[in-house]
Design brief:
This protein is α/β, with parallel strands linked by helices. The protein has a single domain, classed as Metallo-beta-lactamase, Chain A (4-Layer Sandwich). Helices cover about 35% and strands about 25% of the residues. Bound molecules: zinc ion. Zinc ion binds next to loops.
Amino acid sequence: MERMDLELTEVCRGVYQLRLPIPFEDGHVNCFLLPRRGGVLDMIDCGMGSEESFALIRAAIREVGGPRGRLGRLVVTHIHPDHYGGAGEMTEREGAELYLHRLEVPMVHPRYLEIEQLVEEVGRYLELHGVPEEDVDFLKNASRHFRKFVRPARPRLQLDGTEVLELGERRLRVEWTPGHSPGHVCLFDLGSGILFAGDHLLPELTPNIGLHPQSTPNPLDDYLAGLRRVAELRPAMVLPAHGAAFTAVTARVADLVRHHERRKAQIEAIVGDGELDAWRVAVAVWGRRENLHDMRMALQEGLAHLQSLSFEGRLEKRATPAGITWRRR
Ligand SMILES: [Zn+2]
């Protein structure tokens, strides 16, 4: 194996950020190690299931916890491969105790273990939303390859939100922030005001918010409500899962809210006086992408905005088993 450099930084007292490689987004995910006394380290997110990633985690455990360093609690913000993929390895080999929000738990089996039923459901869903017949087959299989980056694990503790957890020398409150994933959680340090934000609040990327068979029924409004809630916490600093730590929380939240408001207005204008399915809306907003996986993400993202417009009463959603379309009310 090629030797990778260990990118480990003490971002604030008793919190070590470990950057691990991933094959998508900006190429890295940030995980966090919080040492307790006696060489035990608690961890937030654990990267993908790859040997390269495991070797870096082991090196970091030794570096921070000493030769007898070992993992204690592992809180995973959500079950996407770059945050949860290493969970099986961390619990079985490293003895970590996994904590996971309960809305993430039922998604694991259909997504990573027996996936055929979900693939069929997604196929049906794509047809309903106007995806051309010749693309449905490819699109419904677009996330099949993610499975190889994930070794699932069962949680020792399922979270509802609002729990106060002792991680490292800190007391962190679980903030349930659905939207990017139904059981996404952030962790808020009650002492120092640091927010471990997962994918909820990122300095540069806009997390994908999609309506799909496993999402909450109105993920965009859930997401925006969660953004306002974390802004009200007035975090002193945000430690995101992608990108660098930042402090200008109010401004970043305002940017993200504005981005989604503009997108909704754009989609409302595209629908205009016509009646469109979500596929045609997605093609109008994002164009036809070469990469069909991107196209599926675009469809789901477009659907999240359409659904929010429909909840607000700005669009009417017409549904029959033959298809779903949207028009002005
Ligand atoms: Zn994610």
